[in-house]
Amino acid sequence: MARESTPADVSPAIRLAEAVCAVIADHGLERASIREVASEAGVSIGAVQHHFRTKDDMLVFVFEHIVRATTDRVRQVPLGQSIAQNLSLVLRELLPLDATRQREARVYVAFAARAATSPRLAAVQAETLAQITGQLAEVIERAGSQGKPVSTFLLSARDEAALLLAVADGLMFDAITCPDNLDPGRLTTLLDAYLTRLLGGF
Amino acid sequence: MARESTPADVSPAIRLAEAVCAVIADHGLERASIREVASEAGVSIGAVQHHFRTKDDMLVFVFEHIVRATTDRVRQVPLGQSIAQNLSLVLRELLPLDATRQREARVYVAFAARAATSPRLAAVQAETLAQITGQLAEVIERAGSQGKPVSTFLLSARDEAALLLAVADGLMFDAITCPDNLDPGRLTTLLDAYLTRLLGGF
Q1: In this predicted model, which residue has the larger pLDDT, A201 or B104?
Q2: What is d(CA B18, CA B39) in angstroms, rounded to the nearest whole number?
């Protein structure tokens, strides 16, 4: 009992999800077996199987968990003065700018890659992209009432949102798969340059 | 002998690499074992081990093979009238616009995700990103002599190139991990909208 370092009110499934993320971030998704996760979490294989009947069930739960962690953080972002500032603050939460976001992005890329051959993970990825794109499209629509007429955009708000998310995802992907290439300072410079180009200034 | 459908002059290692790509595109990278590849290629496990001493050797060879296939195709792109047209034609080769490029992009994303936890694959990814970014930066530099002064870019040519590659990689990543979201028509519309924004027109 004295060795328990995680708060007692965190659900055991969430604690296991954190153990899965640690295995994936350090060794890749293919190492995230029920056995390896039990070892990482310091519990028995049976304890993991009590929460997740199959490895597939475990992976879907953990993908949803990591997406929720990111969207919860996005919701807590203190908003700024302008649309460009707000989009920058929100999208920075998707970029690997510190140890937490680096780990999250590594796990996210591993799951998204796996979604290409797993229908259940693909469903989580589809829901995630639709939700973020919808939120970005709303903000871009709103830019019309703050000086940037929507008619000056090249695309519909929905397409502008999909392109903007692709910019953030591409920066994240290139940074995670090649960390020396894009450090945090360069990532935010490139993101903000795109937003300046989109919205005409901050 | 009569059943041999691949040209005899294709090296056996390349034929095995194609078998590895087929396994990865259909079932994910974690299924690409020496045993599974031997079965896919219709050869013995020993025949695979004759070419690749370890699974790691095999994966590095195949990652280099898939990158080479893309860059070879890029080199054969017939160039157009303007810088924007040429960048569009080149970057379309990186997007999953047909069955070949879809398969290639799925395999590429799987390898790039694995590069986050594999130093040897990370080296291939670093070399790939550096090479493509360098080539894009040269084209962007040249835009200065064709009407778009380099001084009107927000960033250095190298940073503009990194941002442009992130746009293409992000579109590719979002399309591969969520195919219904971004069909080929929408992918090229979004890419060309970005190039219009960057270069002021086609």
Answers
A1: B104
A2: 13
